[in-house]
């Protein structure tokens, strides 16, 4: 069976090479997905943390005490990061601990919040009110970001699935049905050209989808895989249906 499958690709060395490359690129595309999930988890927990800090300050606690209470309460990624930062603060100043917390989060939202908190402490500003306002602002911001991503994700997946799977299967079915190899039609060059065309079309679809979601670089890790899938569907489909 394996030999029969490989025999189908004997005239398409580029496709075989692309399949090999796609496996390595797919492995390289996993870390950006995990990193983004971690960052979004932190950012979605940020408004609740700011609200809790504001309430604790209103109850008469200091900022460091409020952050310690929030670190014990929060069991997510943000709470774990906060606990690690507070443990490090015993060997350094509280300001440096806030800077370390912002840096380790790798989140622009958290970095802006920590910068504003440090500035408010230096200027002796009403920190409770500032934290409450930031909590409401970032809650609205994350709601908009999540809604936008949910709307665009469906469209991006639809584009990729149609261009990389639906379209090559449809064209392969038409070519294999009306110009079958078993009846003597010689379409090797035509099929090779269309195989490359669907690979290029999948690359464009990945680029468009990644640009829509603002993740163009991370999406290009998956481009060889979708190109190989699209090209394989057309190439194998023509041989099977026309044979």
Structure described in brief:
With about 240 residues, the protein is an all-alpha fold. About 85% of the residues lie in helices and about 0% in strands. The protein has 10 helices and no strands.
Outline the fold blueprint.
Layout: H1 2-8, H2 13-58, H3 63-73, H4 77-88, H5 94-105, H6 108-122, H7 127-178, H8 188-213, H9 216-220, H10 223-242
Helix pairs in contact: 2-3, 2-7, 2-10, 3-4, 4-5, 5-6, 6-7, 7-8, 7-10, 8-10
Keywords:
2 domains, mainly alpha, 10 helices, Receptor-associated Protein, 85% helix, 243 residues
Kindly describe this structure.
The structure is a single chain. By secondary structure, this protein is mainly α. The protein has two domains: 2-38 and 146-242, no CATH class; 42-143, Receptor-associated Protein. The protein has ten helices and no strands. Helix 2 crosses helix 10 and helix 6 packs antiparallel against helix 7. The longest helix has 52 residues, at 127-178.
Distance between the termini: 16 Å
The geometry reads as elongated
Q: Radius of gyration, rounded? A: 27 Å
Structural class label: mainly alpha
